[in-house]
Amino acid sequence: MFVLAKGGEPLMPCHPARARELLGRGRAVVARQAPFTIRLKHRTRAGSDVAGVQLRLDPGSKATGIAVTDECPNGTAEGRSGLARQGLIAIELRHRGRQIHGGMMRRADYRRRRRSANLRHRAPRHHNRTRPVGWLPPSLRHRIDSTMSLVTRLCRYAPVVEIHVEQVAFDTASFAGVGQPDGLSESTRAGSEIREFLLARWNRSCTYCDATGVPLNIEHVRPKRHGGSDRVTNLVLACVPCNQAKGTLPVEQFLADRPTRLERVIAQLRKPLHDVAVMNATGCQLVRTLASTGVPVHAWSGGRTRWNRAVTGLPKSHTLDALATGLLDHDRGDAIVRVPAHILVVTSTGRGAYARTTPDRFGFPRLRRPRRKIHHGFSTGDLVRASVPGGKWAGNWVGRIAVRASGQHRLTTLTSRFDVSHRNLRLLQRADGHTYGFAPEIRLSGERGPA
Length: 451
Ligand SMILES: [Zn+2]
Prior knowledge:
alpha+beta, DNA Binding (I), subunit A, SH3 type barrels, 10 helices, globular
């Protein structure tokens, strides 16, 4: 739970049980419902011990994992001196890129029809369409904007001193230093990074026979005996039979009777690491934008996250990826000692449509919407408390509303959905373009149970 000082400055987050106790004894008030934040009545920032927290982000196409962590020396664990990383709060931010893409396509369809309704085709007279540098399609732009909006808010609720973000899928710079596996060292990590890269590049299948679901070896196209290098441009994946059959033969000789495959393998090998760069474009822009918060930003590769997760034995989820982002020196004894049992799920819903008519599937107006968005003091998406005096739904409820001009607003709670008069509603929090909910973290295997 986020905690604010008397003056509104962020303090170290606390456990939900501690927040309940403070609220119960009247020493704190609720400052915000979601994400749940309390403000202490008497404690000031100057009189508190604030060590600072890290924000860790794992940006994804559908959802971004965010973890609020703190790190302290891990002196107690069998005399080693590594850092103990604690996950304090886990958040999954679900994006609405697909809805935005769908909306843009629908608009393009309407415009296409209207243009062609009255016009014959003319070739463009000037090819003068340009886009500003750094332009991103709206669906990708939204990913950066919504992440930034949440990060800026989290920086207000928690004393964030560092931001760690997974920027690139593969750390291509580390490919040079690959070596033989020897425990948990840096060269093994580079090896696992290369392996992940090759799996993605060769579609998780054998380069020579397309076999999938079998053990794949890293194979030198030009054998090392004939002067082949260890660079990724000389590496492919091969199943065990293919790997043994090829042995130290040059690839031209091995694939002599399959010329189309030989051509395809060579073409794929010569293809520059371009697609990796395109995949990294959104990541670069996110890192640049995050830097504008004024908090130091550190960018890491996805291969390192996977490596951290593998060594600490964590399963895969957006929030656990975020927790494992950044430097963990496994030789020194760094460890993740606490994983939040529940995650806050923040879903982007947008702030309603600009269009004032809803068309049917043929494009004819079906429903006229009112110009106003606020009815009887409420707008769609507001978090409210309802006190229903009688009838089937009698009792107290908390949920989000969709407003109607009549004043009979539709209330959606965790379990039910019904209409309530605006007279029986009390506002808890204004709509901010998101809905909030809770979900349990993936059940953790092994001895490290959820904290
Ligand atoms: Zn094969």
